[in-house]
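#structure-requests
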Amino acid sequence: METPEMTTEFKIVIHGLPDAQCKGCKFTKLRLDRAGVPYEFIDLSLDENEQTREAIRSLGHMQAPYVLLSDGTDWTGLDPDKIDDAVAKYNRSKLQAVA
């Protein structure tokens, strides 16, 4: 998995499993949805994402979701504080884009 480069647009990528299989994935997406924060979801249960799944495992991450922010911050599992931090970073990036 490549390290993301800094861009002017703040991005969040959630690597996870279907909601029925991963309550942490469901909650993470729900919390971002409620905050109005866009994200990309990559379903690791799909065969087409096997390379991504293996790359994440090779980094030592064994729990879903694996969340990666465009500033390089990442975490695994359900972490409400880190979700809130990601929302704050997204909101700051939007304010900076306007300024």
